[in-house]
Amino acid sequence: MQTNNEVIMSQWREQFSVFRQRPDWAYFDNAASCQVPDVVLEAICDYQHHYHANVHRGSYEQSQHATALYESWRAKVAGFVGATSDSLIFTRGTTESMNLLAESLLRPRLQRGDNVVVTLSEHHANWLPWQRVCEQVGAEFRVADLKDDGTVDNLMQLVDERTCLVSLNHASNVLGVINPVAEICHQLREQGVLSVVDAAQSAAHMAIDVNQLGCDALAFSGHKLYGPTGIGGLYVRHDVLAAMPPYQVGGGMVDKVYQQDSTFHSGVQGFEAGTPNLVGAAGLATAVEFLQDARANGSSEYLRGLFKQLEAVLADVSWLTALPHSGGRVPVISVHNPAVHPRELAICLDQDGVSARAGRHCAQPLTDKLTSNGCLRFSLGLHSNEADIERLARGLRECKLKP
């Protein structure tokens, strides 16, 4: 007999055309990129079929309507993280958001001898932009270590009077471990230090309110929220945004252009040079609605229960060791064995229709500390079900890679 969760789950899975076509596919790579539900695909096509025109430029009706739609999508995505539309910039995703902040927020403030702090568990997107600016300016790039449970350890001890900015993940893409970002951001605010939060992993699984977190900036990616690739959101606190120079210049963000100088739009439009990703914005706004509806129907509880089953299956494999994780609040778990390369195990599982991610997961400093050869990561999505877990268990039994 089906439980309520199983009924809900089968409804979610049926909303993904890829799983109607491949009902036995066990997809465990949602931390990298979620599959896209029908409603998002339909929103993208609907915009292209009926409403497309360039925005913020045309005086004709179709352009004005497209502009109104685009700004309504901005408001919806901003509301998803507790922000207002005048503080939400559309970007290509978390990577571009961090590069934008590194160039427009950090570089104008950072001086030789200053420092920037990150944690050991950062994705390269929240490491490399800060590291590069520090190298170019002559500032110190500091890395906070981790506790045994994977959370950041003694970050505030690295913060001093020369600290310009601290950037850390809300949840690790390798571990799923959740950092106490609200506590840290409020302490940084008291010390006058800028705070940036990478919410690429947490946004799909946790309710986020930037006002409660107290951060100066927060970034997330659409393709990890059941939306399309190439679109994401960057929240920047109003007074911080007002002091930032443009990241890129061109059409759409310019006010007046003269032979000797030019002036630019203020606010979020000043950071969206060129024609924006309109179809991406349509898809992301719809993905946010899809995700909010799923949460209202018990998706968080469902995924935590399913994660326990996943954890039990992996714990039953004696030759694999699990890295620290959040227990399913962010349903990500990684395993490793120094005698078995994770890529070999991923290839073996793929032959049985199980897709998991092997490697260092764009987090090499972290995986180098915790493993000798990387790890194999499993991450759940709304379409995941018990059959996926059973297929994984069978695949692990059949793989002849035990050292």
Q: Secondary structure elements and their pairing?
A:
Layout: H1 4-14, H2 17-21, E1 26-27, H3 38-50, H4 61-80, E2 88-91, H5 94-106, E3 115-119, H6 128-137, E4 140-144, E5 163-169, H7 181-190, E6 194-198, H8 210-213, E7 217-221, E8 232-236, H9 238-242, E9 254-257, E10 262-264, H10 278-296, H11 299-315, E11 321-322, E12 332-336, H12 342-350, E13 354-355, E14 357-359, H13 364-370, E15 375-379, H14 386-398
Parallel strand pairs: 1-13, 3-4, 3-5, 5-6, 6-7
Antiparallel strand pairs: 2-8, 7-8, 9-10, 11-12, 12-15, 14-15
Helix pairs in contact: 3-10, 4-10, 11-14
Give the gist of this structure.
It holds the Pfam family Aminotran_5. This protein is 39% helix and 15% strand.
Which percent range fits the helix content? 25-40%
Order of helices and strands: HHEHHEHEHEEHEHEEHEEHHEEHEEHEH
CATH architecture of the largest domain, please? 3-Layer(aba) Sandwich
Low-confidence stretches: 1-10
Into which percentage range does the β-strand content fall?
A: 15-25%
Question: How many structural domains?
Answer: 2
Structural class, from secondary structure content? Answer: alpha/beta
Largest sheet: 7 strands, mixed
| Strand order in the sheet with the most strands | 2-8-7-6-5-3-4
